[in-house]
Amino acid sequence: MQTSLNEPTTRKPWLTLRRREAIACALFIAPAVIGFVLFWVTPLAVSAYISLTDYALAGTPRFVGLENYQRLFADRLFWQAVRVTLTYALIVVPMWIISSLTLALIMNQKLRGVAAFRTVYYLPAVLSGVATAMLWAWLFNYRSGLLNGLLSSLGLQGPNWLGDKNIALFSIILMSLWTMGWYLPIWLSGLQGIPTELYEAAEMDGANAWQRLFNVTLPMLSPVILYNLVINIIFATQLFTEPMMMTGGGPQFATLSYVLYLYDNAFSYLKMGQATAMAWLLFLFTLALSALVFKLSPLWVYVESERRG
Amino acid sequence: MNRSKLSRRDFLKIGAAAGAMTLAGCAAPAAAPQQPAPAAGTEATTGPAAVPAAGEIEYFTYDLGPANQSREEMRDAFQAANPGAKVKVTVLPYDEMWQKVAALMAAGQPPDVMYGDFSLVRNALEGQLLDLTDYMKADPVLSDPNQFTVNMQDDIQAKYGTSKIVALIMGTWVPILYYNKDMFDAAGVAYPTEDWTWEDAREAARKLTKDDRSQFGMQLGTTFDNVGWMWWGQKPDNFWAIPQAFPETCNFNNPTGIGVMQVYYDLTHVDKSAPTPDEASGYSNYAGPFGAGKAAMYSGGDWDAGWSFRELPFKWDMTLTPKMRKDYRPALNTMVATNTIASATKNPDIAWNFIRFITATEEGQKLVGKGAYETPVLKGVAESDEVLKPEWAPAGYGARVKAASLPGPMFTPYPLNINLWEFPSKFLDPTVDNVRRGEMTPEQAVEYLDKEGKPYFEQQRKDTPPIP
């Protein structure tokens, strides 16, 4: 069919405004999507595959199905690493939350020089974990450490903080208190976001300090507590630097954390298959635990917008 | 393509060209590449090693403390003898080195040459180490077994578990008994001798131990130095054979195995003349209580002497490690330090010339002796006064050479397998630790190791790729 050049065309241009916007949108999000696929999805998929193989970084991976998982479940040290990590997490997660919240409540008072204290308590958060672990290894040193030196000056024989299998893990737990300042800004921002009218109303109703804490502060802080709880669970299950630098997982595997054993499998024994299988198990465990915490959160987390809704 | 065949062909071409030039009366150009220096008392080298080459190689070595300097001197001497060849020496912490090598191997970009122990077994099995068989056979020094204190060919094959030559041995390591002469003098106890058994050592240790735990008679070094005895008297020809022979013809629960555990148990738990693991921990100096002047004897490795003992603030000496029985000294578990070349190297000839320089030339071996981390293996050098009597060393320093030359096969302390450190770190070391703490008897310890070893070595057999 022929058409005259002078005839107005009724065909719509292909590049409509809608399409232009769609292309622009795709171009804008492309870097993020490509990055996500390249650096997240692909490694995840590769690691899932490696977890089903025997691979020692030498040669090519050999498919073994679920054998790595079976071997892990039959491995005594795997369960020891699980035990150590759970013990650590069960103690440090509440300890971190209670100690750092207590600290934040003190730091939230209008006291002279409080800004300096806030800075001091936050300092460990900006220090290298390796440097910190080395510092603590010296503090805990059985013979020449500061702690035992102080105890010795009082006429007491200090324990072998890192060499005694019965207390080595607890020494690391004790050390982890050092990092409580890390959560300080989060707590402080939560505390400073609580409307003062609530405290004034509670005071007018005759509530004392404890009642204000339990009936105003904690309910209003509960979303922050939820956030810190989830983050702390993740951090606690990834315990690595301290045992790696201070004890190497010893003595007698008393401080062999899950991630340290994962690292040993990957880089000391070159069992990449078992190491990635461990990584996947940890991921699924953390995911399940976080999901459980979120599932239970409506029972104790106060979200103002949901109440309004 | 076989690199060694190629380089032989290259060598023949160059040799033919050089011959033609000589016949034509041409003088060699001033910048002509030099051949590797021949070893003392040998003919000038022929074969692939003589191929002149220019380029740069990277040499990975782990941190050897004071001996790092000898590596740099080796590099300088090699470069002086081989103009055009450059060696970049990279020193890494021990653990980090193997992780880095593994990652670089997987990425196809390994270092050209790697100083090594047993950690490259898997790479040898996977064909990632250059086959040096032809190079070695063509070399007049390396192919002559009488030139060395070790059996170069057998020991390399036993160490790497292949039928090929994938490394050159540059030095040996042996267990040694060190002693603090000041403590022996103060206690009026006679110095240890080469004829001592562990019973003699135990008796002396009792006399040298103080009740207040401020001085111990004996410090047992890491299990690395000692558990190799457990395999003495057993069937395997070499340690690679252990995973294959376990537990049918080789196990822990045998008189020697129990005997070794008994040494740990008696000294630490019964006599209390050796520090427990707790008491031995927390020392910041090298070699723990012995280095700190708190232990009269130390059963360690001969590398300790070169590492930091030259600066000890007390009089010390060394002798052969005690015998298990009075009339019986089996071959000591001599270990070998090697250099390997990655198959992926772009400069195989320079790499070969470099490792050959360290192993098969007088100059290279003297530098090994000077570093004192390993004992040289080239006979003329190993037995020279320069190596046996350095100015800082005590009179008994030659014990390390004597120990290395005792007859017997090369032994490594651990059964070789593809995950070398797994069995020792998961089972052997913790078990010895339990014995030292008195939490296990020697009998319980060997029974436990057999029980754990059986499934472990079965799995190793299953996982091991075919031996090339």
Describe the structure.
The complex is a heterodimer of chains A (309) and B (468). Chain A contains 14 helices and two strands. Chain A is mostly helical and 309 residues long. The N and C termini of chain A lie far apart (62 Å). The mean pLDDT of chain A is 89. Chain B is α/β, with parallel strands linked by helices. Chain B is built from 21 helices and ten strands. A six-stranded mixed β-sheet of chain B has the order 2-1-3-9-4-10, sandwiched between helices. A four-stranded mixed β-sheet of chain B has the order 6-7-5-8, sandwiched between helices. The chains are: A mainly alpha (309), B alpha/beta (468).
Element-level helix/strand string of chain A: HEEHHHHHHHHHHHHH
Strand order within the widest sheet of chain B?
A: 2-1-3-9-4-10
Classification by helices and strands of chain B = alpha/beta
Count interface residues per chain for the largest interface.
Answer: A-B, 25 and 30 residues
Helicity range of chain B: 40-55%
Largest sheet of chain B: 6 strands, mixed
Mean pLDDT of chain B comes to 80
Spatial arrangement of strands, main beta sheet of chain A: 1-2
* Multimer state: heterodimer
Terminal Cα span of chain B = 17 Å
* Sequence stretches where pLDDT stays below 50 over 5 or more residues of chain A: none
Overall spatial form of chain A: flat
